[in-house]
């Protein structure tokens, strides 16, 4: 009897313990899920550091919630979409995308929106991080030469898009009026070695891709969603050449990636890397080991990866014509020791020519017959540079330096200087098979470039008259003569 009473007590005690424990954990989970940051007190006051892309302000770390003053100035400025193509951008802070704003959850943001007196348009701001009407837009419509102030409390951690929401909204966004605001969780995001800021955007111009001169916005194409340019950070080549992102082998890289649209979604991918982590849609959920992440218009993602091998890693929208034909291409240059265990490089280098080894060509478009007066050499060089910066630089690089083991240099190229006809042939017909340029072997494929005689002459004249080459001048007539000869057999190239 006595023992059974004792046992009963023990069992009861155990159950009570269990109930308390269950209660405790469910309580904790509950409060986590509905975490309420409304009551966090903002202490003191700071002025927010704002940065132009691809850079971000310093991390919030473990600072307490504060009153954060943001001074944002709207500027309408003329910029360059790609060499020789002028475009009037409307910007938050003078850059596309606009200045990066970095806050923590519980901050009270006092937002000062200033519209520069030289501007022509009224603007406002809708921040997706705001809980309130229009995300702030209803309180912030500001005419040129005026300032509007409103404030909001950051209630949800995450990476948010902001944009102008003044009618016609699509036009304001299409002109570059978007950016990112990061709301870090309590204690901040885990530290990484490198952080960068990128936003994709689609642009619509009266002329088609690369058409020279000042190009106004085209409403009709915007409505039809027929983008002429799809770019990272507001222009073609914003993240290429000496403006490439950089990292060292062994470092962790975090990219705050947004999509301003106005129309297109982005299939964001880094060639030769795998995202170790993706904060899906800029929220709390983390996916791991991701190849390509989808970023909606007006949305974002935070991607993180460690770089393990050196090389140039190409950032693209994997809707791939956008990358290679409309500008959605950036570069991350990683320096450091090679690691042959992780990546061997070419092990064998042989020739394989099934059924004639035909070179892929661009589909032949309708040739645009143009009757023009013959250009002077400086005119040829100028036109050639524009063409080069649009068409050839992606592989041969902006200073013709090429990429080791992949794309041969055009700068001081002995291969080029030795034989102009052969160079013309390469541009007209494409080139494949092993060649040796400045003592280094290349065995890759250059597609036929589908250029007119005049274009081929201009681009080659530019190349011959740049970067220490031998100043040969190539005339359209010379190109025509080479074109008339049959294309060389691929295997005879070297
Ligand atoms: Cu606007």
From TrEMBL:
Its cofactor is Cu(2+); Cu(+). The keyword Heme applies. Its EC number is 1.7.2.1. It catalyses: nitric oxide + Fe(III)-[cytochrome c] + H2O = Fe(II)-[cytochrome c] + nitrite + 2 H(+). SUPFAM superfamilies: Cupredoxins, Cytochrome c. Signal peptide: none annotated. GO terms for biological process: denitrification pathway. Residues 379-467 form the Cytochrome c domain. It comes from the Bacteria. Homotrimer. Belongs to the multicopper oxidase family. This is Copper-containing nitrite reductase. It comes from Flavobacterium cheongpyeongense. The lineage of its organism: Bacteria, Pseudomonadati, Bacteroidota, Flavobacteriia, Flavobacteriales.
């Amino acid at each position: 009897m006595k023992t059974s009473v004792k046992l009963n007590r023990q069992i009861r005690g155990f159950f009570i313990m269990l109930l308390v424990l269950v209660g405790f954990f469910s309580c904790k989970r509950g409060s986590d899920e509905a975490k309420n940051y409304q009551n966090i007190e903002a202490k003191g006051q700071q002025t927010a550091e704002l940065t132009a892309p691809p850079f971000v302000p310093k991390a919030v770390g473990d600072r307490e919630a504060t009153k954060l003053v943001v001074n944002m100035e709207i500027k309408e400025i003329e910029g360059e979409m790609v060499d020789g193509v002028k475009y009037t951008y409307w910007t938050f802070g003078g850059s596309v995308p606009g200045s990066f704003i970095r806050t923590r959850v519980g901050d009270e943001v006092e937002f000062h929106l200033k519209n520069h007196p030289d501007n022509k348009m009224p603007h406002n701001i809708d921040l997706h991080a705001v809980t309130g009407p229009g995300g702030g837009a209803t309180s912030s419509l500001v005419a040129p030469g005026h300032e509007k102030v409103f404030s909001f409390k950051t209630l949800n951690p995450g990476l948010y898009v902001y944009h102008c929401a003044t009618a016609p909204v699509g036009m304001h966004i299409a002109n570059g009026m978007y950016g990112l605001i990061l709301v870090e969780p309590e204690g901040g995001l885990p530290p990484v070695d490198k952080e960068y800021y990128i936003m994709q955007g689609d642009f619509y111009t009266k002329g088609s891709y690369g058409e020279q001169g000042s190009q106004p916005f085209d409403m009709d194409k915007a409505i039809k969603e027929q983008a002429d340019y799809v770019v990272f950070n507001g222009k073609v080549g914003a993240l290429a050449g000496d403006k490439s992102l950089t990292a060292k082998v062994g470092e962790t890289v975090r990219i705050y990636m947004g999509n301003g649209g106005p129309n297109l979604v982005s299939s964001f991918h880094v060639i030769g890397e795998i995202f170790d982590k993706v904060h899906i849609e800029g929220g709390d959920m983390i996916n791991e080991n991701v190849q390509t992440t989808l970023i909606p218009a007006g949305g974002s993602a935070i991607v993180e990866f460690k770089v393990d091998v050196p090389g140039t890693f190409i950032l693209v929208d994997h809707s791939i014509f956008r990358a290679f034909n409309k500008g959605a291409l950036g570069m991350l240059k990683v320096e450091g020791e090679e690691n042959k265990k992780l990546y061997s490089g070419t092990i064998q280098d042989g020739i394989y020519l099934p059924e004639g080894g035909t070179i892929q060509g661009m589909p032949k478009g309708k040739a645009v017959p143009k009757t023009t007066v013959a250009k002077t050499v400086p005119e040829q060089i100028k036109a050639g540079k524009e063409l080069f910066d649009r068409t050839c630089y992606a592989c041969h690089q902006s200073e013709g330096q090429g990429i080791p083991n992949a794309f041969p240099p055009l700068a001081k190229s002995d291969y080029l200087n030795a034989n102009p006809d052969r160079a013309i042939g390469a541009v007209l017909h494409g080139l494949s098979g092993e060649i040796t340029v400045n003592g280094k072997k290349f065995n890759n494929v250059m597609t036929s470039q589908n250029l007119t005689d005049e274009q081929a002459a201009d681009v080659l004249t530019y190349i011959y008259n740049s970067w220490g080459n031998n100043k040969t001048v190539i005339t359209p007539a010379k190109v025509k003569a080479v074109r008339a000869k049959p294309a060389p057999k691929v295997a005879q190239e070297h």
